[in-house]
Amino acid sequence: MYIRFGDWLFRPGRASTVGVLLVLPFLLALGFWQLDRARQKAQLQEAFAERFQQPPVALQEIDASDPANRYRRVSVIGCYDSRHQFLLDNQVHDSQPGYHVLTPLHPREGTAILINRGWLPLGTSRQALPDIMIREESVAVTGWLGQPANPGLRWGEATGGNQTWPRILPYVTYQELAELLGYSLQPAMILLDPESPAGYGRDWQPRFGGSGPERHRGYAVQWFALAAALIMLYVAANTERFPRPKSL
């Protein structure tokens, strides 16, 4: 098969055609996937901005596991489990490594839920853990429903390698933490209001594990550019100038 354009002849080879048909859909799929990820994260940013200033609702009145309630402002009364707290590792603030302090709260009604009490800087080593003790008394907690920014690749056990408390966690899986604690946990956490006492650094913003919608759009442009380059190389490699007959 060939196509002629004036003095040029496009005659693709079978091997190059098969290669393009295999690779091109893959590149386009990656580009559209990145665009979809950008759309999802933009929606989360909009939801955060919309719900940040809303008055709180009682936690027991909504389904904390429903993604539609993410960043919903909530309030709950309960007691902290000070003896069983977690330090979520690899949390960076202003280019400084540290932890997020996660403390289980037992509400007066319903299932326990993790409270993210904010960010603490890493000490001299991970063996020198910060003092995060808190009084186990009835408290009113206000904040926003959220999810931790977990890594894309999960290495090691979710419950951490250390056997002492507080436990250092590489990432959060609610079921495994519930088994460790010996009681159920809701599959969400509350980001403690910056005005509430007994917390640490709390500059809450949607972080998405370090990549926002702009970065995903940039990745999409790169994948689409590779797809376009593949097509141009395919055409260039299989096109030749058609020789004109010599005039007598």
TrEMBL record:
Domain of life: Bacteria
Record's bilayer topology term: Multi-pass membrane protein
Cytoplasm recorded as keyword: no
Transmembrane regions listed in the UniProt entry: 15-35, 219-237
Signal peptide start and end residues: none
Cell compartments where the protein resides: Cell membrane; Membrane
Protein name from the UniProt record: SURF1-like protein
Species this protein is from: Candidatus Competibacter denitrificans Run_A_D11
